[in-house]
Specification:
Layout: E1 6-9, H1 24-36, H2 56-70, E2 77-82, H3 85-97, E3 102-107, H4 115-128, E4 134-138, H5 140-143, H6 149-155, E5 161-166, H7 171-181, E6 186-189, H8 195-201, E7 205-208, H9 210-213, H10 215-226, H11 230-249, H12 252-262, H13 279-291
Length: 292
């Protein structure tokens, strides 16, 4: 089993709105900055990466740039998201060829998919690439579907399905996962949870967009938790929570991109048809960043 752990920022996808090309320079600069801040890994094409608005070629280009910029210093876990199983396998094979160290698997749904279909989707991808470590990403609030607990339990027996990022918002569900599958599958927190609580329950890290804009603070929180300095960690978590509250108030990708822009990274606006944040929202994000 691999040992992915710690802070994995969900990277934004900086796209030139006129040409559709990836803004390579700023993406490389962001990768360099995050690694310099001590993050433990990078996750392009997550929800913060606006994967649903990207073409297959844009997705590949983003992974190529991130893998090259990371240069093996930290693992790169690339997102794979599709409606059709065949499309997901095609994406997974492409990302692995580009050098991704692992994949985060997302199921998009238009029509309801029964539990057997959910299991078939994830197991088909994992078995098509048995040497590639897989993380299951369940986010029913965003993607309209879930991985039922019995299905998750069955998938945890596939050797290269090693991690789950649960964004259900149900902390009790995380404890159930740890109790039922703790020896077979490791848990990453999402922003839907309080990361410190997930770490205290036995989680191995935090995968989320806020790691892009407060990487040092996120790493500090993780280090305090690993050291068992819970009182200091709680104080740090409370200090960080204000920015999480702002991000949940508006569209997440737009928030992260706006915050990065305020920090000097010209990543552009959220991809159309999403809209840029209004001035009052930008000011609220500016104040939250200043408090950090």
């Amino acid at each position: 089993m691999t040992d992915f752990h710690g802070i994995f920022p969900y990277l934004v996808s900086p796209i030139d709105e006129t040409t559709g090309r990836v803004r390579e320079r700023v993406l490389r600069d962001l990768v360099e900055h995050l690694i310099g801040c001590g993050v433990h890994g990078l996750s392009p094409l997550g929800s913060t990466g606006e994967f649903a608005y990207l073409s297959f070629e844009q997705r590949k280009e983003i992974v190529r740039i991130v893998v090259d910029a990371a240069a093996g210093r930290v693992p790169v876990l690339a997102g794979v998201a599709a409606f059709a199983t065949s499309d997901a396998i095609r994406q997974a094979e492409a990302q692995a060829r580009l050098g991704a160290d692992g994949l985060i698997l997302i199921l998009q749904q238009m029509f309801p998919v029964p539990p057997r279909g959910v299991e078939g989707y994830f197991s088909a991808i994992a078995r098509a690439m048995p040497q590639t470590p897989m993380t299951l990403y369940t986010n029913p609030g965003l993607l309209g579907g879930d991985i039922p607990m019995d299905v998750l339990d069955a998938l945890s027996h596939i050797p290269n399905i090693e991690y789950v990022k649960d964004a259900s918002g149900n902390t009790g569900r995380i404890l159930t996962i740890l109790n039922r599958m703790g020896e077979r599958i490791k848990v990453f927190s999402a922003s839907a949870h309080i990361p410190l609580l997930v770490l205290k329950l036995g989680g191995v890290g935090w995968m989320a967009g806020p790691g892009c804009v407060m990487p040092r603070e996120c790493v500090r929180l993780y280090d305090l938790a690993c050291a068992g300095k819970w009182e200091e960690a709680i104080a740090e978590q409370r200090r960080q929570w204000a920015i999480n509250e702002v991000f949940t108030k508006y569209a997440l990708a737009a928030c992260i991109k706006t915050a990065l822009g305020l920090q000097g990274f010209d990543v552009g606006d959220a991809i159309a048809p999403q809209e840029a944040l209004k001035p009052e929202a930008v000011e609220e994000i500016r104040r939250a960043l200043a408090q950090l």
